[in-house]
User: Fold this.
Amino acid sequence: MWKLLCREFFQKYIPTNSTVLELAAGYCEFINNIQAGRKIAVDLNSEVVNYADKDVQVTVTSTTNMAAIPDHSVNIAFTSNFFEHLTRDEIVQTIREVRRILVKGGQFLVLQPNIRFCQQDYWMFFDHITPLDDRSLSEALETNGFKIKQTIVRFLPYTTKSRLPKGLFLIKAYLKIPLAWRFLGQQSFIVAQVTDQA
Assistant:
């Protein structure tokens, strides 16, 4: 599924010669499937090394302190379904770290459950801490040095266990029909850009 999502949707935001970093990379589904000149996976869990492809540089660290990643060395940062697992302070510190490592004009791509549309199921996961929607996340980004370039308020369904079509052909069709997003989408997609150097 992630191979298809990367090829059919996320790749258009990522030049193939860019340096891309995935926060909370986990099973490395995004970073392994995106095309880029340099790929970096960041995760607190050392098991991430078992999932990253050979062309992915792995950094085992907290997203609130990515000291191993130099200032202004990354073109694109990406995260998916991550911020709800952090406290507000940790979210702010992570956003500031992303701003530090991005080049001027660099972009932060965020795929995030939107509590406005999945409030009945948002707390079904024990490790969800902070409720977020597109507006609160945009505010957090804007107050920490980012400009919102694009917001898709309703994009993907909440989880792969939800109403997202399971067949690859159906997923590809879903991505090409934005009208369907308005009915099935429970996650938001935000593109934020660094406005100046930290």
